């Protein structure tokens, strides 16, 4: 029961923190039988929360041992049938023994359960994957199961530490586990472990974004946004991820084949971004041919109506939750320090603490002033609903403000807006042409 409660609470919290969450490749996940998920690890406790709360089947995670000793978190990881993994860095560099860990994981797999593990061994913000640990291969080979399937699952975040960004869980092509003879301790031979670890590394790279440095990843991110905006179509998170993968591959190939043409494209992208920044626009700005007076008027009237209807409730929600929102951000920044991969976890856990406390204070205040029923309604219904209204009001307001800015530029600097639109299409065309060159 605790697991179901935690799943529901964290599931709701994740869908509030992230604007869009997508699970792609679910058809590759077997509905029954032993399965091992192997995942990259860029976002601390957010990463396991996705699979634990949104996986098509129950999963038991291998988690670092210190979590089991942490108040509250310890109860949560135990509720999910997690298995402690002992690491040297957690034990002051002392030698560790994970034989019981591997035995427990194998027992779950032998019972047809699903187990998940982070082969990198630690959460991080490096541009590339860390070297794979051998634990996943040792567990898988040690089961001796012929029907065990390894599913690589890539975790992708458009901005992993930012509130209301997008996230994707991308399930890749399954790996079969070859037979390997076991020694007297039930351990597979080192050669088989090394070979399967290499296969896991290749499979995980196929479902993740990784580059030589952060600068290249940032360039690819911005270029993909320009390319997608030029298509004037709505893109799913999975499509945006696949586009970035292709751009990363193309960047590496073009750097080797035609660096001069690549540098010219990069310079063009940078000039375009500089022009956008001077006008306060994003790459998704409307082209002049998409702007008409009638359509703008209809959009303005609909937006004003929608914003006007929810404004009183949103104003109350903003007043109620603003302090908790700010405190959550400050606490998360203090806890995360220089570790960006911890920031989203800090924000989520802080918000899950301070927002309910805020609702409790509102309920107690209303109950003191108007009685028990009023307190229950205020704390359990009014405050959360007002918070939801505030969230959607300010998101819609930001969209309306951006649209109004674009319309203003259309009216006073239409030729410049047309030039930017043409340049965006030209950059997209050049990328497509370069794709043909490196294909």
Automatic annotation (TrEMBL):
Domain Phospholipid/glycerol acyltransferase, residue spans: 35-158
For this protein, the record's InterPro entries field holds: GPAT/DAPAT, Plipid/glycerol_acylTrfase
Tell me the leader sequence span. Answer: none
In Pfam terms, one family for this protein is: Acyltransferase
**Residue ranges of the TM segments:** 304-327, 348-370, 376-394
User: Which molecular function GO terms apply here?
Assistant: acyltransferase activity
Protein name (record): Lysophospholipid acyltransferase family protein
The organism's lineage is: Bacteria, Pseudomonadati, Myxococcota, Polyangia, Nannocystales
